[in-house]
Design goal:
alpha/beta, 5-stranded mixed beta sheet, two-stranded parallel sheet, 7 strands, 25% helix, globular
Length: 129
């Protein structure tokens, strides 16, 4: 069974607003999937969420369970995405797959390269203050 995502109320509100206002037809599938994840998420107050949970601006190391290939990304708003800096849009399939999950959890997700099982290896949450 798929784990349930856990989000801060701030992230939830930002992401809900993003899905409502998204007009870019190239991301319709990701917006629909993100909306589904938001619909089933557990929402906590900002200071109450475990530091090992993937949030907006988290720096995350993930591993493709099958290939053992690891990747480090930072989850950002679409306007801040910059692949050279490892900053990936929350609307990218990879980020939709891992937002709200925590270290050592595995999630199965349909990515452009097929269905992948991703393991969250490490999460660093940088304070946004």
């Amino acid at each position: 069974m798929k784990p349930t995502p856990v989000l801060t109320s701030t992230d939830y509100n930002i992401l809900r607003e993003l899905t409502k206002n998204a007009k870019d037809s190239t991301n319709i599938r990701e917006i629909a999937l993100l909306t589904q994840e938001l619909d089933r998420a557990i929402i906590n107050k900002d200071g109450v969420v475990d530091q090992s949970i993937v949030r907006m601006n988290s720096q995350v190391t993930i591993e493709d369970v099958k290939s053992k290939q690891q990747m480090k990304v930072q989850i950002v708003m679409p306007s801040q995405a910059n692949l050279k800096e490892g900053k990936v849009s929350i609307l990218a399939p990879l980020c939709v797959a891992i937002i709200g999950f925590k270290e050592n959890e595995e999630v199965e997700w349909q990515l452009p390269s097929g269905i992948k099982t991703l393991k969250i290896i490490n999460v660093i949450n940088v304070s946004s203050n």
